[in-house]
Design a protein that fits this description.
Radius of gyration: 35 Å
CATH topology of the largest domain: ABC transporter transmembrane region fold
Strand content: 5-15%
CATH superfamily of the largest domain: ABC transporter type 1, transmembrane domain
Largest sheet: 6 strands, mixed
Distance between the termini: 73 Å
Number of domains: 2
Oligomer: single chain
Mean pLDDT: 80
Order of helices and strands: HHHHHHHHHEEEHEEHEHHHHEHEEEHH
Strand order of the largest sheet: 6-7-8-3-9-10
Amino acid sequence: MRRSTTTDARLAADQRRSGLRTVRAVAPYLWPADAPWVRNRVVLAVAVLVLAKIVTVATPLFFAAAVDSLGGTAPTPAWTLGAGAVGLTLAYGLARIGGVGFQQLRDLVFNRVGQRALRMIALETFRHIHALSLRYHITRKTGGLSRIIERGVKGVDFLLRFLLFSMGPLVLEILMIGAVLWWLFDAWYLAVVMGTIAAYVWFTFAVTEWRVKIRKVMNDQDTDANQKAIDSLLNFETVKYFNAEDREARRYDGAMEKYVAAAIKTNTSLAFLNFGQAVIITFGLVAVMVMAAIGVSRGQMTVGDFVMVNAYMVQITMPLNFLGTVYREIRQALVDMGEMFDLLEQPAEVTDRPGAPALAVTGGRIEFDAVRFAYEPGRTILKGVTLDVAPGQTVAIVGPSGSGKSTIGRLLFRFYDVTDGAIRIDGQDLREVTQGSIHAAIGVVPQDTVLFNDTVGYNIAYGRDGATQAEIEAAARAARIHDFIVSLPQGYQTVVGERGLKLSGGEKQRVGIARTLLKDPPILVLDEATSALDTETERDIQTSLRGLGQGRTVIAIAHRLSTIADADRIVVLEDGQIVEEGRHDVLLARDGRYAQLWRLQEAEDADADMAAE
């Protein structure tokens, strides 16, 4: 039990630190040094807020004076300037309108500040996610990641809207009402009001802290269910192939069942919280009203005073009831934002050194100098690879699965930094230049070209920002897909579907080749670009790939050896080391590892042809 209590206390302390960290992280967006207009609007909004509360607190005074004026049982206060019941009633109405008007003006003034902060935080998060390493994105579930961002941004919006203009104004209003009650009556009224508020706040905070843990479980189950749904939809074809619709439905329903159980606990705890708050508020309201009734019966207070006390208590209880909801939502918003800021604090594995220059490609020479690399300690993938690719040369890298072929392409693109050794382009170590310039210099055609759920034209134009329609069509012609595109009912405006599912594998590859042609990079990496295609389509695509490689330094990572037989040099990689290299005919004559792979693939192709017959 003691261990559990200690753990709970530690978790609560961590949550408080996380909440303070989140508030500190948001604060600069509300008071930015580079945007004076934002600070001016914040100051103006606060000033209007104070005016709104002054008018709100003064409103019951006019009401009480009007009641006493109608009853004629008490002298009219001097501050009313002799106004009669009608005048005081009109003043009461104007005060109510003024209070609401100032509140709306406050929101209007602050709206641009809040929306700007929301936009800046969302943009920073989006940029940071793209800056994180490939390793992070491989291990992270996209559905869960999008849910964290969505809830975090909504949490920022809620925090800006309610923490500043609900919690702060409520505290100010309570203090002002307490001062008025003390000044007009005596300290006992202030003591009862403050005691009620203290009991209410303590109860609300204590129960809400308990509810946050339940809500966290509910959020986790919500994220899990959402992830399962997105994962299933992204793999729609796989689900169909294995007749797994019912299996996926059961899997999703199982996650939703856990979510529902957590949601029921959350709603039950909410009912308990609401009832407890109502009891505390009612006790405080009744106590103050009894005190006021006694004062009236003894002639110490007027009926107007009784009405005023009642108005002030109602004025306090309404926002206090709202406080319960606001506090719960703010607490949850802090949790949601905490997850998003945890994401923002996730360090990027690959970073540019301060002042790093851009890569200057003069010829396109690529050097791997004793490169060693491990995705994780104890599992080395590349073991001292040394390779020199001359400018304009096509070098093919082949080898069995797991030999490290694709890792070479990822290191060249600087998805990862080498563990030891160096990779250079035209003598420049990739770790000493900016990632953006490396990415601009290298074009990649992967095994499976993934397209955006947009038009064919958009996907080709993605190769170079600002490309004209004529340039897009020229790239499509070079990739031999223009005729196919114009045959479509909507031509270049045809939407390709999620991940390009409306196109065949060969068509997607041609779109990928077209956008790489549009990018026009001096260095090209073909990462098993045709291994997922049928033989006829593969031969057709090879013609386009040869055209794409003209005048460029090309590294072709290949599984099917027939596709790289005409390469200037073939490098055989096995167990992270180069075991052979040379031209196709030379390697066959040597009758080494490459010749074994070639004969093995010929036998597999022959078996496939026999099976097809």
